[in-house]
Amino acid sequence: MSFRSVVALLATVLTLGAPASAQELRGHGGPVRALAVTADGAVALSGSFDTSAILWGIEAGAALAVLRFHDGPVNAVAVLPEGRFATGGEEGRVAIWRLGRPEPERALEGHAGAVSGLAVSPDGRVLASSSWDATVRLTALAGGETQVLSGHRGPVSALAFSPDGRTLVTASHDMSVRFTPLDGSQARMVELGVAVASLAIAPDGEILAGAADGKLYIMGPDGTRRGEMALGGPPLIAVAVSADGVMVAAAAINGAVALISRANRRVERTLVGPGLPVWSLAFRPGSDEVLTGGGDRLIRRWRVSTGEHLGPVIMARPADLPSRYAGDRGAEVFKACIACHTLEPDGGNRAGPTLHGVIGRRIATAPGYVYSEALRGMDIVWTKDTIARLFEIGPNAYTPGTKMPEQTLGDDEDRQALVDFIARASAP
């Protein structure tokens, strides 16, 4: 039985009585951190902060399988040849799955930090994994030794193979994009001067890198700078390019998703209501659709040509700050944090832990939140001084191993206002 036949059979069994062409994929218990779609556009794979991955029949809106293996958030997913899939977890492991099997057929160990990205070579033979441990590991899917690539000075946040498979492009919070030829010749580093959180490569080799300053940096296949686009300010945390290379989708931490024409480098439309923040994006090959994975635990389908949501959008944005904080300078600065953190005693955890009672609390101890091993081993107690330092030098420098998007506050008064506000508003 072919892979497509297996998918069709499972979708039929799991969706008896379900409406055709479901518009939203519901099932995760936490923000959707990663998305990938098969080349035929039939199946999506999602990874979540809830430690699970889910295989979906897109048209039926059906969960074909729930994959559980990782001890922490699933940060990265990839589609492999021959009906296989890969997931990468916060605990540093990569799992290889085959549709219809409840357990991984192979587990890859070796990373000393969270897996941040996965990419498959164009010939389908090699799986590359990037990590917060500042390395990339190249694993032959047919078996054999793993090659370890180093060179970045900080966490590697994203990676992709060039269309010809000869070069691996990696992005890092060390403010660079690195080009590593796989024939063993000298690697090249391009300094951008800003932390890079995501990247995608078009079929013609053009590279699109989303950065912490809210800009999309555009480079040629050799790393030559071709331009940049300012998309509103908040850090860009997900970038995807359509299979034909015509469109780019870029998502910011504030939930805005820009659909960009590569030909004229212009934002053609902005998606409205995709869920705050949008952590993941994937175009659906063979269709006019793009999928978004949000902080509201949903995967949504959108029409690329119009920007319309397929079906009604149920807005799930976090509540605004109470009116009592109107005019408070620190509260204004904190608005950028609302997507990931709550302050109230009943607010609970979002993409990040609740800040209620944070002053005097040891790092990585908020109840019910899954932290990386790196954070659990740190000796930091949150005070006004330590929070100020976090935003002065940035999360990746102060708390290496964090999944908090890279951001700093260079203005001393804004930083102090934010710290004072957090201390006041989060007090028990």
TrEMBL record:
Record GO terms (molecular function): electron transfer activity; heme binding; metal ion binding
Keywords: Electron transport, Heme, Iron, Metal-binding, Repeat, Signal, Transport, WD repeat
Stretches assigned to the Cytochrome c domain: 325-426
Signal peptide start and end residues: 1-22
Ranges occupied by WD repeats: 25-66, 67-107, 108-138, 149-179, 271-312
Pfam family, one: WD40
Family matches, as InterPro entries: Cyt_c-like_dom, Cyt_c-like_dom_sf, Cyt_c_1A/1B, WD40/YVTN_repeat-like_dom_sf, WD40_repeat_dom_sf, WD40_rpt
PANTHER family hit by this protein: WD REPEAT DOMAIN 5B (PTHR22847:SF637), WD40 REPEAT PROTEIN (PTHR22847)
Protein name, as recorded: C-type cytochrome
Organism: Phreatobacter aquaticus
